[in-house]
């Protein structure tokens, strides 16, 4: 027994020690986001819907907290709404804590996948720093997209492993997509990456298996409460007015946006590393597809960066196999160090921050709810979604694709302070705007509304 212990201990120590730069990078990134991440409005609408579902014990038709018509909306991410509601009940800090845990687990899965492909410790550490910087706009705010981080990392791990050593474990993609599709729409992008591997590479060696997995994955996307109506949900998401205008979460990368510039620079560095050596054809297809997706909406850059973290440091040949074997001697211990150390550093930071994690000031939310009573409120995000959680009736808000195009257009015009917001204003009893905003300029001097102070720099315009 002493001989076994002697031979195993050095291998384990070497495995953990070989991750020292990666663990340091994960710790730095997680600590940074623990200090600055906030709860966004794109999360609170999940909470509001989840609260309604739990209270009614069934999925309601449309959006219960909206005054504008949403009947017939296809509500697909019900699991995400229930999870968000449950986590919210534990407190706003619990939401941010969960976000940090998701971030750390995601980085670990990406790092382990990159290392299994032959990437060095220093490369992996640098790539994770590039991911943290480039995805700042996504990782710095708790939003619905948070729920896609771990599933996308797991899908990349599965596909990368199958590309090196193909076997029947590729079938794990089907249940992964089925669960993911109930959490967030980025499951569609995940299926595209899976399809790039299956169609470009796997189908040549195993036609029937690749075809069966591909078709099953597409069907798994429909394993939601909406079943065969799920494709309609995705069609409505891509057809919403915000996407047509390229605004908000659908805004294209812009050199005028610092976060976009950092994202583009991070992607450029990883892309340069990616093309430095001969790559597999499916990798080029997957990277090109996500580059095109990022060009249409900057938020997709997060998925591009995650894919590049996995691929850019890997080797075309199986030269990294020895490193993979060494790291796998004691995977549980390695995972404990790689995940535990960043969490030990990051989680206390969130606890110390207290209410600073909130996206909307709680005092303002309470005051607007008091002033509005049972009236209909028109407010900008993320305040509007926080009001929905507080039980306030909104004229419109997120999920934007649940409303008709005229309603969507009027609400976006309100956010921009344009005259097209007249319909939205006319249908509201209280309009909320922050001092100096485009909405405040729009409402200033409107004789139909009386301004009232609603706390901090917010004003409630109450219909006379």
Gap between N and C termini, in Å? 85 Å
Strands, count? 7
| Uncertain stretches of 5 or more adjacent residues | 1-14, 317-327
- What percentage of amino acids are in beta strands? 5-15%
- What's the average pLDDT? 89
CA-atom Rg in angstroms: 24 Å
Name the overall outline.
globular
Elements, N to C (H/E): HHEHHHHHEHHHHHHHHHHHHEHEHHEHEE
**H/I helix tally:** 23
**Biggest pleated sheet:** 5 strands, mixed
Helix content: 55-70%
Strand order of the largest sheet: 4-3-5-7-6
- Class from helix and strand fractions: mainly alpha
Structure write-up:
Helix 8 (149-164) runs antiparallel to helix 9 (173-180). It contains 23 helices and 7 strands. The longest helix has 25 residues, at 92-116. It has helices at residues 2-17, 20-36, 41-56, 78-89, 92-116, 121-134, 136-139, 149-164, 173-180, 187-205, 207-220, 230-238, 241-245, 258-274, 281-296, 301-311, 321-327, 331-353, 362-372, 383-389, 405-416, 422-426, 438-443; strands spanning 38-39, 141-142, 376-378, 393-394, 430-434, 449-453, 458-463. It starts with a helix and ends with a strand.
């Amino acid at each position: 027994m002493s001989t076994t212990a002697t031979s195993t201990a050095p291998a384990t120590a070497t495995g953990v020690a070989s991750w020292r730069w990666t663990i340091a990078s994960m710790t730095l990134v997680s600590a940074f986001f623990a200090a600055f991440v906030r709860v966004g409005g794109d999360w609170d609408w999940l909470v509001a819907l989840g609260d309604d579902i739990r209270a009614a014990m069934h999925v309601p038709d449309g959006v219960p907290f909206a005054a504008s018509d949403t009947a017939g909306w296809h509500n697909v991410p019900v699991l995400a709404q229930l999870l968000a509601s449950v986590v919210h009940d534990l407190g706003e800090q619990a939401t941010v804590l969960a976000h940090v845990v998701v971030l750390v687990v995601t980085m670990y899965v990406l790092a382990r996948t990159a290392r299994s492909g032959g990437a060095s410790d220093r490369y992996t550490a640098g790539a994770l720093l590039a991911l943290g910087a480039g995805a700042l706009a996504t990782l710095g705010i708790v939003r619905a997209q948070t729920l896609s981080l771990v599933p996308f990392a797991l899908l990349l791990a599965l596909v990368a492993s199958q590309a090196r050593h193909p076997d029947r474990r590729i079938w794990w993609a089907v249940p992964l997509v089925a669960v993911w599709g109930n959490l967030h729409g980025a499951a569609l992008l995940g299926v595209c990456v899976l399809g790039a591997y299956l169609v470009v590479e796997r189908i040549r060696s195993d036609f029937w298996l690749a075809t069966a997995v591909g078709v099953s994955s597409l069907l798994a996307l429909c394993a939601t409460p909406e079943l065969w109506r799920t494709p309609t949900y995705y069609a409505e998401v891509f057809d919403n007015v915000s996407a047509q205008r390229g605004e908000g979460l659908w805004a294209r990368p812009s050199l005028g946006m610092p976060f976009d510039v950092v994202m583009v620079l991070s992607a450029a560095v990883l892309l340069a590393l990616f093309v430095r050596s001969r790559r597999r054809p499916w990798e080029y297809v997957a990277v090109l597809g996500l580059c095109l997706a990022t060009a249409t909406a900057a938020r997709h850059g997060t998925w591009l960066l995650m894919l590049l973290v996995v691929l850019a440091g890997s080797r075309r040949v199986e030269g990294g196999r020895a490193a993979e074997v060494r790291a796998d001697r004691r995977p549980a211990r390695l995972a404990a160090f790689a995940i535990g150390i960043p969490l030990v550093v990051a989680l206390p930071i969130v606890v110390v921050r207290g209410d600073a994690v909130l996206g909307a000031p709680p005092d303002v939310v309470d005051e607007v709810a008091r002033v509005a009573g049972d009236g209909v409120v028109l407010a900008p995000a993320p305040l509007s979604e926080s009001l929905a959680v507080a039980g306030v009736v909104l004229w419109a808000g997120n999920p934007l694709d649940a409303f008709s195009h005229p309603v969507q257009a009027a609400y976006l015009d309100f956010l921009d302070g344009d005259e097209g917001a007249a319909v939205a204003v006319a249908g509201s009893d209280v309009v909320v705007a922050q001092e100096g905003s485009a909405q405040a300029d729009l409402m200033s001097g409107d004789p139909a509304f009386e301004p009232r102070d609603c706390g901090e720099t917010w004003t409630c315009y109450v219909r006379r």
